[in-house]
Automatic annotation (TrEMBL):
<feature type="domain" description="Glycosyl transferase family 51">
    <location>
        <begin position="75"/>
        <end position="258"/>
    </location>
</feature>
<dbReference type="Pfam" id="PF00912">
    <property type="entry name" value="Transgly"/>
</dbReference>
<keyword id="KW-0121">Carboxypeptidase</keyword>
<feature type="compositionally biased region" description="Basic and acidic residues">
    <location>
        <begin position="393"/>
        <end position="403"/>
    </location>
</feature>
<keyword id="KW-0328">Glycosyltransferase</keyword>
<dbReference type="InterPro" id="IPR023346">
    <property type="entry name" value="Lysozyme-like_dom_sf"/>
</dbReference>
<dbReference type="Pfam" id="PF00905">
    <property type="entry name" value="Transpeptidase"/>
</dbReference>
<feature type="region of interest" description="Disordered">
    <location>
        <begin position="385"/>
        <end position="404"/>
    </location>
</feature>
<feature type="domain" description="Penicillin-binding protein transpeptidase">
    <location>
        <begin position="364"/>
        <end position="660"/>
    </location>
</feature>
<dbReference type="InterPro" id="IPR001460">
    <property type="entry name" value="PCN-bd_Tpept"/>
</dbReference>
<dbReference type="InterPro" id="IPR012338">
    <property type="entry name" value="Beta-lactam/transpept-like"/>
</dbReference>
<dbReference type="InterPro" id="IPR036950">
    <property type="entry name" value="PBP_transglycosylase"/>
</dbReference>
<dbReference type="InterPro" id="IPR001264">
    <property type="entry name" value="Glyco_trans_51"/>
</dbReference>
<keyword id="KW-0378">Hydrolase</keyword>
<keyword id="KW-0645">Protease</keyword>
<keyword id="KW-0511">Multifunctional enzyme</keyword>
<dbReference type="InterPro" id="IPR050396">
    <property type="entry name" value="Glycosyltr_51/Transpeptidase"/>
</dbReference>
Length: 713
């Protein structure tokens, strides 16, 4: 046995010899424990030898704070127990005096266990015939909290708080050990950060916010006394209850105790006792449904962030562990959402399709070279309340389900388990890149008839003839010989099917995967397999589903000259101690990028994509473009691709400059067969063009690098 152990056990043995253990037990329990009272010093000391020598302290759960890119605007918080560590120096001096007066007036005199307090409680309880007074010191209470917070199983948590003599003995021993190791101020600081004050407020920071909407350093005498009085019985003394009598009596008791301890003057006490309870209650936000009302549109971004967090191995071995860590870890997260760009994006989305529309119109803006998501806007209200939502647009469901408009929490822009929407001709970018990578130059030409009999056997697609798939163009004006510039600019289906045949459909599918697309439907997963991808001719026309986040990031990769970066919703993640969160020697919030395609290939693809927007190619002839209004609105270098599906089920546009990339869509998420119609075919084009224009208005005009001769001729 070490000398330290003898010291701790000896101190408790002295209490046994003095006959005070029975009093301690009676002071804290509702039944006598005579067996322990009769225990001798030797037996008592031997019993203590089997108890842990030192308290294992696990930092208590803390609230994680999530901010916008400015680092100031709070999106929301995540917590199981709302708590944030506060240094003692950042607490009102009244608070420290009040908690000592309320819970342990001899705190500065004892060594963890107070024999006088035990004796006093014993006498009071004997006279009352029950438990009228406790004997736990502040240190013993802190030990109990630490044991509870360090529990790894429900059984351990129960043992930390159960009303037994063994628990009291354990607290005594560990309290004496803690007093040998920590200063009184350190104990008080830990106590005040661990105590429960009611209303899901754990620790003094949360309590100050919840009851008074202020910081702990700003608490007045009466406010400090009120909070100090709560820890004894938060529910019984709840000041927010209809009847504040119990809370007032408890507060006044604490004030009176402070006066008796000379912690405050008689005049201060008299003034404080006359004051009424004045609360300024607040409910701290928790999770994405608590995003402030004025920033409700940020809820969809918040949901994406949460989904992203659940995928990060830095925070646990599975999604459940990672989310629990978000709610307990006390992180300070600065996200990538730019309030200014988000405001522009939402305005232009809502100008074209209001929240009450059955059609969802949304847009995502990405920063090339980092993958950071700067904006996620959609014409929906982020809310779980669907009571007043409109009728479901699928006639088979309209009698049983509400539509997801205007309120929803569905991940309409990406990040959840929704498959997304058919992206139409925007998928031609994958065939274009695959062909350029295979060495085919931009001048590669084919005669593009109105209808083309492909080599592919009949498959899901816009048209079939016999056993072969026979796609056609949307306009007879597209008939003729086309190059990559004109074929892409005009979105000529029969040109791109021939280009796909030349390079191989599987290469286009694999290019899409390299640029971040994931197959979420059973059909897409099957067709993307090695066995079926070579025959997936309709892939180039966008029959697969994709999300706006994915498509915006595809074109951001081209803006970054082939450098692909994973979609990233954060700028920084800091641990409670201020250090950056790291995983495998890498900052968790750092961009994760690699060269997905050669810069020469990306530059060549961009030159063709310039034809779409009306900006014009640097090295070739475009003819007319499907989205010439984009350059007309933006008036700076811009490239992109529009896309509509067969029958106008969806309408997309993805556009990019060297600084920003954006992708917008319009579709009915509830019913893919509900056609958006030709009247909405230009909606996404204008939304992207106007958002990029406003977002870049104070930025310098940068130009694209023209393609090299190798991929031109």
């Amino acid at each position: 046995m070490t000398s330290r152990r003898l010291t701790v056990a000896g101190k408790v043995a002295m209490l046994i010899r003095a006959g005070l253990i029975a009093g301690l037990v009676l002071a804290g329990l509702s039944y006598p424990f005579t067996a322990l009272a009769g225990m001798g010093v030797k037996a008592g000391t031997e019993a203590l030898d089997n108890m842990p020598e030192q308290l294992t302290e696990t930092p208590p759960a803390q609230t994680s704070y999530v901010y916008a890119a400015d680092g100031k605007t709070l999106l929301t918080m995540f917590y199981e127990e709302h708590r944030k560590h506060t240094d003692l120096d950042d607490m009102s001096p009244y608070l420290v005096k009040a908690i000592v007066a309320s819970e342990d007036t001899r705190f500065y005199e004892h060594n963890g266990v107070d024999p006088k307090g035990v004796a006093r409680a014993f006498v009071a309880n004997q006279q009352a015939g029950g438990v009228a007074q406790g004997a736990s010191t502040l240190t013993m209470q802190y030990v109990r909290m630490a044991l509870r917070d360090s529990a790894k199983t429900p059984t351990e948590a129960l043992k930390a708080t159960e009303q037994t003599a063994a628990r009291k003995l354990r607290e005594m021993r560990l309290a004496i050990e803690v007093e040998q190791r920590l200063s009184k101020d350190e104990i008080l600081e830990r106590y005040l950060n661990a105590a429960y004050f009611g209303h899901r407020a754990y620790g003094i920071f949360a309590a100050s916010q919840v009851f008074f909407s202020k910081a702990p350093r700003d608490l007045t005498l009466t406010e400090a006394a009120l909070l100090a009085g709560l820890v004894k019985a938060p529910s019984a003394y709840d000041p927010a209850a209809n009847d504040r009598g119990a809370a007032l009596d408890r507060r006044n008791y604490v004030i009176d105790q402070m006066r008796k301890m000379n912690a405050i003057t008689a005049e201060q006490a008299a003034t404080a006792l006359r004051s009424r309870i004045k609360l300024k209650l607040s409910t701290p936000p928790n999770d994405c449904v608590s995003v402030p009302e004025k920033h409700n549109d940020w809820g969809f971004f918040c949901d994406y962030f949460k989904s992203w967090w659940r995928e990060q191995p830095a925070f646990g071995s599975n999604p459940q562990e990672r989310e629990a860590q978000l709610r307990r870890g006390g992180y300070r997260v600065v996200t990538s959402i730019d309030p200014k760009i988000q405001r522009y994006a939402l305005r232009h989305v809502l100008e074209k399709e209001g929240r009450g529309s059955t059609f969802a119109h949304g847009q995502v803006v990405v920063q090339p070279g980092t993958g950071r998501l700067l904006s996620m806007a959609v014409n929906r209200t982020y809310s779980l309340d669907q009571e007043n939502n409109g009728q479901h647009t699928d006639w088979r469901k309209k009698d049983d389900e509400k539509g997801n408009y205007p309120n929803t929490v569905n991940p309409l822009l990406g990040g959840g388990d929704m498959a997304g929407y058919q992206a139409g001709s925007t998928f031609k970018i994958f065939t274009l890149l695959a062909a350029l990578e295979a060495g085919l130059p931009l001048t590669t030409s084919f005669y593009a008839p109105q209808r083309f009999v492909s080599q592919y056997i009949t498959a899901p697609g816009p048209a079939t003839c016999g056993i072969y798939w026979c796609p056609k163009n949307s306009s007879k004006s597209m008939t003729g010989t086309q190059t990559m510039w004109s074929g892409f600019g005009k979105s000529v289906n029969t040109y791109f099917v021939q280009l796909e045949q030349r390079v191989g459909a599987e290469k286009a599918v694999r290019m899409a995967e390299r640029l971040g697309l994931r197959w979420r439907t059973a059909v897409d997963k099957e067709l993307a397999t090695k066995e079926h991808a070579p025959d997936w001719g309709a892939f180039t026309l966008g029959v697969s589903d994709a999300t706006p986040v994915e498509m915006a990031n595809v074109f951001a990769t081209l803006a970054a000259e082939g450098r692909y970066c994973e979609p990233l919703p954060v700028l920084s993640i800091r641990n409670p101690d201020g250090t950056h969160a790291v995983y495998q020697e890498r900052l968790v919030a750092a961009p994760r990028c690699h060269q997905a395609v050669k810069a020469t290939v990306a530059r060549a693809a961009t030159d063709a994509a310039r034809c779409v927007t009306g900006y014009g190619a640097a090295r070739g002839h475009c003819g007319w473009g499907t989205s010439a209004m984009v350059y007309g609105v933006l008036q700076r270098p811009v490239a992109g691709k529009s896309g509509t599906t067969d029958g106008n089920k969806t309408a997309w546009f993805s556009g990019y400059t060297p600084q920003l990339a954006a992708s917008a869509f319009v579709a009915d998420p509830d019913n893919p067969e509900h056609l958006v119609g030709s009247g909405r075919s230009t909606m996404s084009k204008y939304t992207v063009a106007q958002t990029l224009r406003d977002a870049l208005q104070d930025e310098p005009e940068l130009k694209f690098t023209p393609p090299s001769d190798k991929l031109v001729w």
